[in-house]
Design a protein that fits this description.
The protein is α+β, with helices and mostly antiparallel strands. Helices cover about 30% and strands about 25% of the residues. Strand 7 and strand 8 form a beta hairpin.
Length: about 170
């Protein structure tokens, strides 16, 4: 007896079951990977801005400001950081710092629609090595909450570091 080429109903059911199991296990992993990538890109952009601000303060021997900015031109002194930010040379030394036309913008970061960035400071001022800079912490959260949150901690010297925990090894708050 000769068998026809093709799949039996049993073969088809087993194949659909295997594909279903693989899909159910793979989709959450891909989603986590996508969220991790987005957060890493946002944290790295702000770390780059901090390094640039710190280095520029040493080279120019003047105050460099990192502030919240929704439009890439003006500092915003209310709200959170996920609307965007700018790093600029504070030529006129005003406080609270406000970007003026004659003050060069060194870099800017756009809005992060996939999460929230909160901080314990409205503005960070980076100064030359002999004077203390503004220290503080920025916390990055996405829809996964505190479990996946990251903190960018800026020291008095302007050195940034990334942490998964708050001071005292407490969990970050989102």
């Amino acid at each position: 007896m000769e068998r026809n080429a093709g799949f039996t109903l049993f073969d088809l059911i087993v194949t659909v079951a295997v594909v279903s199991v693989l899909t159910v296990t793979a989709v959450p992993a891909v989603g986590r990977l996508l969220l991790d990538g987005r957060m890493t890109a946002q944290v790295n952009a702000l770390v780059h801005g901090v390094h640039l601000a710190k280095q520029s303060a040493h080279v120019r021997l003047t105050d460099i400001v990192l502030c919240k900015s929704g439009d890439g031109h003006r500092c915003v002194h209310d709200g959170d950081w996920h609307g965007g930010w700018i790093v600029f040379v504070n030529v006129d030394g005003d406080y609270p710092p406000q970007h003026a036309e004659n003050e060069p913008v060194l870099t800017a970061g756009g809005a992060w629609p996939h999460g929230a960035i909160t901080a314990n400071r409205d503005v960070f001022i980076f100064r030359a090595a002999t004077t203390r800079s503004t220290n503080g912490t920025l916390v990055f959260c996405d829809r996964r909450g505190a479990e996946a949150a990251r903190a960018l901690i800026i020291s008095y010297t302007g050195r940034p570091r990334i942490s998964r925990r708050a001071p005292g090894k407490r969990p970050l708050l989102c």
